[in-house]
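#dry-run=false #mode=assembly
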Amino acid sequence: MQSRLRTLMLCGVVVWAGCAAPNPEGVVGEEPAAKERPAADSAEEVRQDWAIVVHGGAGTPPRDMSDERRQGYEQALLGAVAAGEEHLAAGGTAVDAVELMVVLLEDDERFNAGKGAVFTHDAVHELDAAVMDGSDRSCGAVAGVKTVRNPIRLARLVMDRSPHVFLIGEGAEQFATEMEVERVENSWFDTEGRRKSLERALASEKEEKHGTVGAVALDTHGNLAAATSTGGLTNKRFGRVGDVPVIGAGTYADNACCGISGTGKGEQFIRHTVARSIAARVQFEGLSIDEAARRVFAEHLDDGDGGVIMIDRAGRIGMHYNTGGMYRAWADASGTRGVAIWEQE
Amino acid sequence: MQSRLRTLMLCGVVVWAGCAAPNPEGVVGEEPAAKERPAADSAEEVRQDWAIVVHGGAGTPPRDMSDERRQGYEQALLGAVAAGEEHLAAGGTAVDAVELMVVLLEDDERFNAGKGAVFTHDAVHELDAAVMDGSDRSCGAVAGVKTVRNPIRLARLVMDRSPHVFLIGEGAEQFATEMEVERVENSWFDTEGRRKSLERALASEKEEKHGTVGAVALDTHGNLAAATSTGGLTNKRFGRVGDVPVIGAGTYADNACCGISGTGKGEQFIRHTVARSIAARVQFEGLSIDEAARRVFAEHLDDGDGGVIMIDRAGRIGMHYNTGGMYRAWADASGTRGVAIWEQE
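#status=ok
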């Protein structure tokens, strides 16, 4: 179990403060937000009016990445955060914010979700996504989707407009047709980089992992939400589903404790119900999100398995991973904001 | 929330004691089982060498059911338990026992799993199943399978023979071909009763719920396992997946706390991660399985949502539901055994 212990907990790397932060006070609606929010664990804690964290996957980002490439990632992550911030600061809901942010990351071909999704073994794309609203634990998930430009939008529609919470394959496509969501040819998701990854993976007969995207938000009404979207594993076998659409594995939100979006080896996240296990330790053991994640990773996951982003009900942001790095950015109403890829920038 | 409170907890209805129970002592292998089993919460507790519980669905079994029909259900459930008992008493593993018992229930057309599975809206059958081994939380799940005679066998093969834990649709079928599991025409699953249910459901434009099957076992080595299999909802939309293959929703097993198999409204079980939530309250709050289930049902589920069967690490059996009844049977090494459909027999 020695190998499981290289877990890193990072919250403080603040790189970006250039964007004029909206003043969250004054735009939170008629009722002060705090009245509607559950009490934080400690009366001493500062409660954030809103908070956001996004990820673009955990893995081994090359240390020799060019400045240009790195800045591209950072701008993409910060762009998503800025959009979420604008929405939340204006009193918008957490569930809308996480959907909006994930749509932006899906549309960015740097990330393995939506445009830029990896190729399966059969050189097509099969996309999974899930969203969860912590205010009532309503949720929606899709798996094995092939022609929906933004799978997270379809997951949201499953949540809002269907009696079900989980639709797969052709059934999910049929629902997409009914809902009139934007469709694309499967080849629209193709990118050169992902094709090279497939060629490499086919040559080595291995699957290759690339960054899922996800977002967690706390809104001014005190509600948490989480959303995750992925193309899965390069060279994955036909029909394989990972943790993303499995509520409690890669995605979970409950106002009683926290919102979580995970990224990493889906099989491990399912086996150990990683998101729900972290949330349960916050909820029933009274641990902080950081300590809960640290324990779940140390006790159950292997080095390199992945990472999570988290926000608790007081708006504290947590990011935890046991890989070489995790693409991530965050902001809250106090003016804290940042972006990071590795532990040290 | 008043309507959520009609939860019934039943353990003591013992109807069957006619079968010659094997003597579990003496066949538990070289090491006394207790040495390998985690300590129970209380030193006063009797630890069972092995324990079994199965279900054939929760719902509203008609009170005016004929004796013949009722006896048919009872014999089917008791037959599964007897097979599991023989296996466990001979030192077999919990994960083999739950697979074996679920295969028997799948093959029995009374239940909505395998032969006798309900029809989808499009008048075909789409089957889901999952199995989980509490010794290491390894698991396997399949969803949307159409030609695999025993979906639980395929779920087990996903667990044992694939690098993945969750395969869906055509990908799961392709894996079934590789594994050479028994295949049938989709129409093999047809039964007259289920066709009538579909006609009724189509006429009312509603989906209809029928009993999933499941099994939980503790073996003489101290390991827990759970398995669940279902045809889902009559008239369900194409591609809908319920809680059964979602690890932590309808199926969960962890030697640290308990094994659980659920049956009922899959969407509710997914939203509230019912199995994992019960297990978490046992694990982190120190509640008994009965109390944990009572709280999760009272706090999160609506009247009529479903039921769970459970075994904790000391071999205590729990059964909890908030429907009119739940088909179930149980046995343990102390000689306790029984079968029940309603709260009073």
